[in-house]
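pinging the channel bc i need a second pair of eyes. not urgent but kinda urgent?? the chain im working w is below, pasted from the shared doc
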Amino acid sequence: MTLPINIPPMYVEIKYFLNSYRALSDARSGIRHLEDYLRDASFLLSEWKVIWIGSCTILRTCIDLFQVDARSCINADLRQAVAAEWASIKLHKDQHPIFWEFLRKERDNIIHEYEWAAYEAWLKDDGSVVRPTLALFADRPEDVRTVLMMRGGMYTGRNSLELLREGADWVEERIFSAIGKAGLDPEERRELRSFTTYSEHAPRGGLLSLLGEPEET
């Protein structure tokens, strides 16, 4: 992030120094939008696909951004920790199926084939799932709600929205894991340009120096 030189110190949580976390925030916004859409829609519309495609793609991009953060983050320890986290994800694929079997595959299918595993369905009060046909669009039962379900692969039959939330939680866990391994707290605030703490950045003269007044001797 490039900032003007003559501005007062600005402090933000460490997590926001990472491109991957800022992208995750956007992905969570998309997930909330999709959740609201499915809850409020009175009939099935195809617009959910746009939100689904965007959210899946951003979540996959969050992990791709680990490689960017490993090169560009302001703090060397954090750069190394992010690089190590990505290396661990690649080395231990069996421990991270939600990335390799869902986020990665879904995004690749979208980009290369414009296909996705999620599909529209109606969830009845008794828990059964019905996939509506065009003939049913105008005659939606009152005891159903619109849901998205997964088809094909490891997550067949799973609620797509719940799986998307799990994917976002997994991404956040990986980001916070890297921050923790760097000996840092994701919620701690650091100065935006220097990565210093409040105490490190405070003028030696204390409050009086900030006010431009000489200290008593």
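so The longest strand covers residues 118-124. and Residues 205-217 have pLDDT under 50 and may be disordered. — does that match what u expected or am i reading it wrong
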